[in-house]
Every structure is written in structure tokens, then in C-alpha cells.
Specification:
Layout: E1 5-11, E2 18-24, E3 29-37, H1 41-52, E4 60-66, H2 72-81, E5 85-89, H3 91-101, H4 108-121, H5 133-167, H6 178-187, H7 191-208, H8 221-235, H9 243-279, H10 293-303, H11 312-319, E6 326-328, E7 331-333, H12 344-360, H13 362-374, H14 379-400, H15 416-424, H16 431-436, H17 439-459
Parallel strand pairs: 1-4, 4-5
Antiparallel strand pairs: 1-2, 2-3, 6-7
Length: 461
């Protein structure tokens, strides 16, 4: 005998009352009117009673809701404690279904009905939600804060590079060593001052800034002064850029960057790592090349329990690091953009870790090499392909409860050193191919092709 089923679609609100509808799949109709309620035990009890009305025994009750702020948490906890199967879904899943109800209108009723129907239409894409508990929730909050500091660090670094491109005629990489760039930005950003000081003075200043190092390379200073000479000729006057004011702006950005890095280190040491090691003492994900302790903590905080995902395909879809697909008849689209479903903190961490993994794990290096050389992908696309494979390996380690074993492309065990050597030699991507695959180069090629077509049409007139 089939157990009776009722589905509650809940449109959550942050400050206003929540809205819910109750769907009876047996006759495919909604029961009664839309229900307004707040996260109060009495009101939630009333909603549950309406869902069970007319049913005997122990019916199966399913609740579907979006992740709206943290409004979902008290509602989800209470319903879970009462035996309701709770599913928290990404808003992208319901976006298109809302348009089926009304392409040019939106309302709480449409949203709640779309959520209820989602269980009927695509239940295999839903992942049942389990309350994480206070300790795991605290770890999630710390991980989100960690990622916010990390993104702030990256944003500052990009901003500094943008300043370099117009103030110094290009990036500093290739002209100034990485370890000297912060020193240069803080003390010698004005090319007029660099030109006036001269090579010897700058060499002595750089040596004095590194008293603990026995050997300090200074051969790069001549390239720097030559660029400074070019910039003075280009702008004619330092007031055209106001270099001294720009240097003060850069100093503030560098101070903010140091602050964000210190905050991230403290957060990792005092909050993330103690909680992560207490909740997940096995620490299996740290055996993956490119995955450090903080990244492993982020994955585990949001995966919670790998048993929530019956298959690796479902797990990969949850991460959002899989391409979309479109097939009709004998036609099938390839190389579509990533779905980008799933937690942003997981997606960004997968991307960063994959960028490191492909430099140490020969299998990732081979995949990256194939994407770049054979398929003509640019760097970001190739790293995203590696990130998708990294998600599969995370699933395998957690599902099989084992540590990671480095293997070569034939599946034979290999040492870390040998794997790194193969990454640097056999699967090294030449700079010429990197330049060929850039978006800028592709745009230039497309423009040239269009121009050739235009010239041919002009000649044939």
C-alpha cells in the first residue's frame, strides 16, 4: 500500500510572514488557500495539521523551500524534528518553473506553487536537508567569513595590478620580482623619483630592505629604471598622474591586504581548524594535492555527510562545476557554460584548489594539457575542467572512506616528486599556446576574419 503524500511549498521571507501552499499529488491539486505563517511553534503546528488533514496513519510530508537568508533554518529545524522531509533548493532551480506559471508576473503564490511542483518534476535533483547542528553551523559561518576575506585579498590584488598597468605601462611581473613588488609600491612608485635615484641607489636600498638575506639579486633594477625612463617620457609630468597621491592610495590598499590576510590566518587558527578537526578527525581530503586544511574544512562544512548524495553525478551537480547540456534528436550541444548551481564558497574553493592540483598531480596536469593544447581552451576553462574532476575525487574519497593515492596517467602509483616533474616537463603548456588560447587573441582573430570577408565582398563588387 502506497503511503499518502503531501507536499508543502514554502516561499520564505526575511522580515514578512512566510507563505505556503499544500499540494496533494494523488489528485494533483492544491488544498485550500495559501497559508501565511511565521517561525513560531504554534503557527508551524497549524501548517502541519493542514497538510495532514484528511489523512490517516503516518502520511509522508515533504517541505520544499529556497535558501532565503537564514529564514529557512528555524522553519527547517522544526519541520525536521516533526518527521517532515525537508529539501532546501537553490533559487536557480525554480526560476524557470516560475515562468511556466506566469511569464510576466511574479507573486508569493506563484513562488510557493513552483516550489511544491519541483518535487514532482525533478525530485532526483533535490538533496534532502539535514540540520547541521550548532557546531557545524559555526564552522560554516567561519568558512564563509574566511572566503569573504580571501575574496577581499584577491580584489585588492587585482586593483593593484590595474594601477600598475596604466601607471607603469604594464604589469610588474617580468620587470620586478614578486618579493620586491610590495616594497616598490610602498616606497618607489613614482617613476620620476626612480629615475632621479638611479640604479646604484636603488640597488643599495633593496639590499638594505633585506638585511637577513645573504645574497640579494639586484640585476632587475636596470629593467625597472629603464621602464621609469619610458614612463617619464610618456606622461611628461608626474602631475599628469599625481604619483605621490597614487602611492598613498596603494599604501592603504596594501595595509588592507595585510589586514585581510592576518584576519584570515587568525580565523583559520582560532575558529576553523579546531572545529574542523573536532567534527572531521579523519581529514581525508587533505591528502589531495592542492587541498589544504582550510579548503578541506570548507568542503566538509557544506557537504556535511556524503551519504546525502547517492551518486557522484548528483554531487557534481550540487557543486555547480559541471557544464550545462542540450540535446535534441541527433544534435547535442557541447562545451556549454557551467551550471554554477551550489554554494559559491564551494565553487570558488574548487577552482582555486584545481589551479594548484594541476601543478602537482600528473593526472590533473594531463587533463589541463589536453584542454589547452588539444581542445584550444583558455586557462579558466581548463582549470574549471580540473575542478569538476576534483569534485569527483572528493566524492570518491569520502564515499570509500580512504586517503588519496597519487597515480600516473596509466593508473600506477607515483611519488609526489615524480608527479611534479612530469607536470613541469611532459605536460608543460608552452607560452605560445597560452597566448593563442586567450579570449583577447580569439576576439582579434574573429575581427580579422570579419575584415577579410568584408574585403572579399568589396573586391567582388
Amino acid at each position: 500500500m502506497t503511503m499518502a503524500l503531501r507536499i508543502i511549498g514554502i516561499d520564505l521571507a526575511v522580515t514578512a510572514a512566510h507563505k505556503a501552499v499544500i499540494l496533494d499529488p494523488a489528485d494533483n491539486r492544491f488544498i485550500g488557500k495559501q497559508v501565511s505563517f511565521r517561525a513560531r511553534p504554534a503557527e508551524l503546528e497549524s501548517l502541519l495539521a493542514k497538510a495532514k488533514k484528511g489523512l490517516s496513519g503516518s502520511p509522508e510530508i515533504v517541505a520544499i523551500m529556497e535558501a532565503t537568508g537564514m529564514a529557512w533554518y528555524p522553519v527547517g529545524v522544526w519541520l525536521h524534528r516533526r518527521g517532515v522531509k525537508v529539501y532546501r533548493v537553490n533559487g536557480r532551480l525554480t526560476k524557470d518553473l516560475r515562468k511556466v506559471y506566469s511569464a510576466h508576473a511574479g507573486s508569493d503564490l506563484i513562488d510557493s506553487r513552483a516550489l511544491a511542483r519541483l518535487y514532482q518534476i525533478a525530485s532526483e535533483r533535490l538533496v534532502r536537508w539535514e540540520p547541521p547542528g550548532g557546531k557545524l553551523l559555526a564552522l560554516q559561518r567561519a568558512c564563509r567569513e574566511f572566503v569573504r576575506w580571501r575574496e577581499e585579498d584577491i580584489a585588492i590584488q587585482n586593483r593593484l595590478k590595474a594601477y600598475d598597468h596604466w601607471a607603469w605601462g604594464g604589469g610588474l611581473n617580468g620587470m620586478i620580482p614578486a618579493q620586491a613588488q610590495s616594497w616598490m609600491r610602498r616606497n618607489w612608485y613614482n617613476p620620476w623619483r626612480v629615475r632621479k635615484a638611479g640604479i646604484q641607489t636603488l640597488q643599495k636600498a633593496w639590499i638594505a630592505a633585506n638585511p637577513d638575506r645573504k645574497e640579494v639579486a639586484t640585476d632587475w633594477v636596470s629593467r625597472w629604471t629603464a621602464r621609469a625612463e619610458e614612463m617619464t617620457r610618456l606622461y611628461g609630468s608626474e602631475e599628469m598622474v599625481a604619483y605621490e597621491a597614487l602611492q598613498e592610495t596603494i599604501k592603504r590598499n596594501l595595509d588592507l591586504q595585510l589586514q585581510s590576510r592576518k584576519a584570515r590566518q587568525n580565523l583559520s587558527r582560532e575558529e576553523i581548524q579546531p572545529r574542523y578537526r573536532f567534527l572531521f578527525p579523519q581529514r581525508r581530503l587533505e591528502t589531495l594535492p592542492g587541498v589544504g586544511a582550510d579548503s578541506a574544512a570548507i568542503y566538509m562544512a557544506f557537504i556535511q555527510d556524503i551519504k546525502r548524495f547517492p551518486t557522484v553525478e548528483q554531487f557534481r551537480k550540487w557543486t555547480g562545476m559541471v557544464p550545462g547540456s542540450h540535446q535534441s534528436g541527433e544534435f547535442e550541444s557541447k562545451h556549454l557554460p557551467l551550471t554554477k548551481a551550489g554554494p559559491n564558497v564551494v565553487k570558488s574553493t574548487l577552482y582555486l584548489n584545481a589551479g594548484v592540483s594541476r601543478q602537482w598531480d600528473v593526472q590533473f596536469a594531463a587533463l589541463y594539457h589536453t584542454q589547452m593544447v588539444t581542445y584550444g581552451k583558455h586557462h579558466t576553462q581548463a582549470v574549471c575542467a580540473c575542478a569538476s574532476h576534483l569534485a569527483s575525487r572528493i566524492y570518491a574519497l569520502l564515499k570509500q572512506e580512504r586517503d588519496y593515492q597519487l597515480r600516473d596517467v596509466e593508473g600506477k602509483p607515483i611519488t609526489r616528486e615524480a608527479s611534479r616533474q612530469l607536470c613541469l616537463t611532459r605536460y608543460h603548456v608552452p607560452e605560445a599556446i597560452r597566448q593563442r588560447n586567450t579570449v583577447r587573441y580569439r576576439r582579434k582573430q574573429a575581427e580579422a576574419k570579419t575584415e577579410r570577408k568584408y574585403q572579399r565582398r568589396q573586391r567582388n563588387r
